């Protein structure tokens, strides 16, 4: 063996040590990268939780428990959430004179479908403790708690939660997602904006003008409610598109836009909101349908003015469907009058 040359076994031993050393470095690097990802995701989740905690306001929007209806076992874990929209130009979402949007959101037990039911403000209904009046009068007389009692009495179905959002929240959200494509069924001109029949791309200000219009529409507030639903549908479609919710920056902005203009009932905790949102992670825009509460036509009542007459038979069918979590099986003519 030449002088200075190491035996072959020792060379192989060093190579094995170097290979093991490189393998350890790779493993440690992967572990470190995984830890960074985990901490980043956890940190982002904590940030979103912080947005919910700091932005969402809570208030007594539900009536006292002793006046509430009990949940039917046939409802399973479905949820009925009353969504109230305010067109107020002020910061006071609790202004008892305004409830420009009354939509009942039914989330199915299997979380595969959501139905959004518009209740026109002029529906002529029985208001507990008061004479018969427009449903919007319940809000003016006793705020959200009296409106909840009125709707529960009309439908014979408990409402689980109430969420009230200002139109500015929808406006900001519309801008955050880059505008939305709204299907317009009646051409109108509102302020600086002209809307033609068919698909119209709208940014926040245009969308607000679109849903605020009422006087040019064929059925007044009925048509206005359908416009509100068309806007909500366009927002959902854009928000549920692949890439929108997977973009952390955009997702955080969307949650911020929505929650900073949001008031919910005291029982709707951050944990419940988060769990509900997570349970709907598989929902697609095709699983969301929009309905209008049944009415038979229009009338005029002395001292009250123009009203929408409730179709009592179909309203009972709607209540039965909500109570048994079968709203998705309703014939179109039950909750889509006209």
UniProtKB/TrEMBL annotation:
Pfam families: LytR_cpsA_psr. The keyword Membrane applies. Coiled coil: none annotated. InterPro entries: LytR/CpsA/Psr_CW_biosynth, LytR_CpsA_psr. Residues 98-239 form the Cell envelope-related transcriptional attenuator domain. The chain crosses the membrane at residues 25-48. Keywords: Membrane, Transmembrane, Transmembrane helix. NCBIfam families: lytR_cpsA_psr (TIGR00350). PANTHER family: POLYISOPRENYL-TEICHOIC ACID--PEPTIDOGLYCAN TEICHOIC ACID TRANSFERASE TAGU. Belongs to the LytR/CpsA/Psr (LCP) family. This is Cell envelope-related transcriptional attenuator domain-containing protein. It comes from Luteipulveratus mongoliensis. The lineage of its organism: Bacteria, Bacillati, Actinomycetota, Actinomycetes, Micrococcales.
